[in-house]
Write a structure and sequence with these properties.
This protein is about 35% helix and about 10% strand. It is an alpha/beta fold. The chain is globular. It starts with a strand and ends in an 11-residue tail after the last helix.
């Protein structure tokens, strides 16, 4: 069985959005695929697409609900999972390269619409997705 590890990046950063929705759809598809399994490097997220699957007990989730805690917690958890190396393919959910030095498995990268990254002057940082 092939296990795909998805990291936390977009699930930690987005409540709604096309990228996190895309990855949530892949994960939901893998749930019903007999030859595949997945590993999600997220302990807590306010992401809408993960709400159907609670990740932590409610009391602990409430304590960690501040985005600054959730992002760091998830980043530490992803680094731990990378060291465990208990997956076959790594698929980061965004472009942070924190994993390059640690990764010992094949990597899949999805290039998303890069309009925001290439032309940030046309977007207001406070816009909701």
């Amino acid at each position: 069985m092939t296990k795909v590890f998805f990291d936390h990046q977009k699930f930690s950063l987005q409540k709604y959005g096309g990228i996190s929705r895309y990855f949530a759809n892949i994960i939901n598809t893998l749930k019903s695929a007999p030859d595949y399994d997945y590993l999600l490097g997220v302990l807590h997220s306010g992401n809408h697409y993960l709400q159907k699957n609670p990740l932590l007990p409610p009391k602990l989730a409430k304590i960690l609900s501040a985005p600054k805690y959730a992002y760091r917690l998830n980043a530490i958890y992803c680094e731990y999972l990378l060291k465990q190396n208990a997956f076959d393919i790594f698929h980061p959910t965004y472009y942070d390269t924190y994993f390059f030095e640690k990764l010992k498995r094949p990597l899949v990268i999805t290039i998303h619409d890069m309009t925001y990254e290439r032309l940030p002057e046309y977007f207001w940082a406070e816009d909701t997705l």
